[in-house]
Amino acid sequence: MAHRILVLRLSSLGDVVLTAPVYKNLKAHWPDCRISVLVKPAFAPVLAHNPNVDEVLPYRGHAQALRLVLERGFTHLLDLHANWRTFWLRHLARVPNVAVYQKDALARRLFVHLGLPSPSLARHTLDRYLEALAAWGVPVRTRELALGDYGTAGSPRPTEGARVLLAQTSFLGDALLTVPLTRRIKDVLPGCRLSVLTRPKTADVFRRLPWVDEVLEDDKKGLHKGLGILALARSLRGRFDLALSAHRSFRTALLLRLARIPYRIGFSTSAGAFFYHRTVFFSWAMPDVERNLALLLPLKPDLKAEDQDSLYLSRREGPESSSIGERLAAAGFKPEDRLAGLHPGSAWPTKRWPADGYARLGRRLVAEAGMKVVLVGGPEDAGLSKGIAEAIGEGALDLTGKTSLPELIDLVGRLKLFVTNDSGPMHVAAARGVPTLALFGPTTRELGFFPYGRGHRVLEADLPCRPCGLHGARACPQGHFLCMRLLTVGSAYRASLELLGTAA
To answer: Dihedrals φ, ψ of 465, to 5°?
Structure first.
């Protein structure tokens, strides 16, 4: 007999969204099981398109819920809410197999009201959900949340011929991770005119894209700093029907409100979320590319991620620069040479793997793997890369600070391997389909900013102090910098060979 499973989760939007990996693991263990989820009516649309949920039951009171449960004859009940309401429900429902997640409500109250810490609070809510499956012998095969696991409530506004503004005024990596969203906007809203508002430094990311009709610059460090936002807002008024904000800052939300754009969509965690007409749940448990794509859920609730979303720079979206080929040839590099890229820099010192590590890895790639090495980065990384290139010696070419963004994209497309810190160029390489080895220290893969797509790898040390921040720090808060020092040259070299073998 097939398992008929009821899952109870009567809390907030975020808690409901985080139940998605539970259904994946149940279906992986019992492919023929039928999963029903009892949630508040407001959150029923969130799970309506989840491929692993067979039925969504809206909770409209205890008596009605108990009647629904008794009618359906469930064989298993999983309580992921664990409060007094679900306590009585699971005891009155007479379901033979019951599992309950450990909420640790007392520990949470003691911490909130008295500041008393508890080791139990270090566990993520998702981990608690998945631990409850052990009572039924269900192994945890995945912990990931993906686009398509949740939707959003409400109906979209008419969008034919819409004039759309996408705002992304953050760093290079954030801009690159927004590129798939620009293409999918055109898919979801055929015939729309798409404008992108971004920083001057990242404007070239979007100017290469044939599906972006206009690139506007928000010079928030110069012309539009402070009250300059008012002039920028006036220039946007009357030009757009819809705005999507991939940037979670208060300033961006305020700007779109001051521009009086009729329909605005942003993330629920934005400091200016109240300025948006619709907000989309922001989850740290999923890749940043898919988090950005989720901004389209109010317009297309059944939106799913596609393979091409991870290879958004794999095709040339503009003319390739001939200067890259000329500079490689001038350095004695031949077309048949296998090239490995190294990016040792970062705006945050704690994100940088030690320079000696890059130098020793580069020497091994040249001497043992028969590769040539190209160092890349911004002008601020020039001194760092120069020392590494000199230490590698013959077979190394230093182009740090010597490429424009379009040239960097072209250069990366010629590589067979890219070794990098957590940085913007990491996303360029992954998006071009180049096997990417990312060295993570103060940040973690779980923050969502890892190299997105297949054929990449994150090398990191398992330390309780990680992550110590969203972007890293100027200095290690613990003073030991073990998160980077524990990443050995040997492990990086072995991982590089594995990636090269996979690519081959």
So the answer is: -85, -5
Taking 70 as the pLDDT cut, the residues of the chain under it are 1, 103-124, 153-160, 285, 307, 310-322, 445-449, 469-472, 502-504
Q: Are 305 and 148 a contacting pair, CB within 8 Å?
A: yes
The length of the chain in residues reads 504
- Local structure of 249: helix, strand or coil: coil
Query: Would strands 242-245 and 263-267 be described as parallel, antiparallel, or unpaired?
Result: parallel
Residue entry with tokens 């890059």? 358
For 492, residues 6+ apart whose C-beta sits below 8 A from its C-beta are 357, 361, 419, 437, 439, 459
Residue 458's alpha-carbon distances to 106, 358, 438, 444, in angstroms, are 37, 16, 5, 9
DSSP string for 419-462: EEESSHHHHHHHHTT--EEEE-SSS-GGGS-SPPSSS-EEE---
- Between strands 278-280 and 436-439, the pairing is unpaired
* φ, ψ (nearest 5 deg) of residue 164: -110, 135
pTM above 0.70, yes or no: no
DSSP string of 55-96? EEEE---HHHHHHHHHHHT-SEEEESS-SHHHHHHHHHTT-S
Between the alpha carbon of residue 237 and those of residues 213, 256, 262, the distances in Å are 18, 9, 10
At 89-129, the pLDDT tens digits run 989 998 999 999 986 555 445 444 555 554 444 456 788 89
3-state secondary structure of 267: strand
Q: What is the distance between the alpha carbons of residues 250 and 47, in angstroms, rounded to a whole number?
A: 29
Query: Contact at 8 Å (CB) between 196 and 206?
Result: yes
Type and span of the H or E element at 374: strand 372-375
Give the separation between CA 36 and CA 58, rounded to whole angstroms.
10
> Of 424, 418, 416, 461, which is closest to residue 443 (Cα–Cα)?
461
| Tens-digit pLDDT profile for residues 251-300 | 999 999 999 999 999 998 899 999 999 999 887 767 788 889 999 999 98
Q: Is 333 exposed, middle or buried (0-12, 13-18, 19+ CB in 10 A)?
A: middle
Q: State how far the Cα of 388 lies from the Cα of 372, in Å rounded to an integer.
A: 14
Q: How far apart are CA 280 and CA 270, in angstroms?
A: 10
Q: How would you write 139-151 as a 3-class SS string?
A: CCCCCCCCCCCCC
Q: Domains plus CATH for the chain?
A: 4-136 (3.40.50.2000), 163-309 (3.40.50.2000), 322-503 (3.40.50.2000)
